[in-house]
């Protein structure tokens, strides 16, 4: 029995995310997105006002896994072990950065796209269509800071629950953990697993690495 096709908007978003992973934000074209999605290029504009809105929506979809992982993490405050909770989150973060780095890497050389990302990218504004701003940022600068702030909130909640020392610094713990996840994703994009093991002397399995890093972070918190 044939499975029904996903709605066209979902197919376009999935195709845009795939093209961005392969080509980066700046080299993604609506023509290529349409080809991958199997739709006419004009169909894209039935769902998105322009290429920027399409990219914003696709990037928001890419970040959805991290938002779900953070929501799960908050639901575990005071439950299970902090190490287990953070290890699961860190493994998701490694996968997320592995997807995000190829997408955003080329944007570092595009001033307009970089400025848009720095002003919140797909998260900026309060309900309007996302896109590069024509003036000052309409709201608080968000973007990657959202994930950092969310992880700070988890550490603070576990502090209040008495499961982390009062002397620990949640902002720095969050920075160290996320930075370690991003570095591992960076290495896996550019290096073979056996080289990571032999030269960087890190586990080839992301789950093992996530567990090791969390133990290190929690050890520093005590």
Characterization of the model:
The structure is a single chain. 65% of the residues lie in helices and 0% in strands. With 222 residues, it is mainly α. It folds into 2 domains: 1-62, Arc Repressor Mutant, subunit A (Orthogonal Bundle), CATH 1.10.10.60; 63-221, Tetracycline Repressor, domain 2, CATH 1.10.357. The longest helix is centred in the middle third of the chain and has 23 residues, at 82-104. The radius of gyration is 19 Å and the shape is globular. The model is unreliable at 126-141 (pLDDT under 50).
In short:
It is built from eleven helices and no strands. With 222 residues, the chain is mostly helical.
CATH topology type of the largest domain: Tetracycline Repressor, domain 2
| C-alpha end-to-end distance | 57 Å
- Rg is 19 Å
Task: Domain count, please report it.
Answer: 2
Largest sheet, in brief, is: none
How would you spell out the order of helices and strands? HHHHHHHHHHH
Named CATH architecture of the largest domain: Orthogonal Bundle
Strand-residue proportion: under 5%
Give me the number of helical elements: 11
Q: Structural class per helix/strand content?
A: mainly alpha
Q: Percent helix among the residues?
A: 55-70%
| Gross morphology | globular
Q: What ranges have pLDDT less than 50 throughout 5 or more consecutive residues? A: 126-141
Can you count the beta strands? Answer: 0
**What's the CATH class of the largest domain, please?**
Mainly Alpha
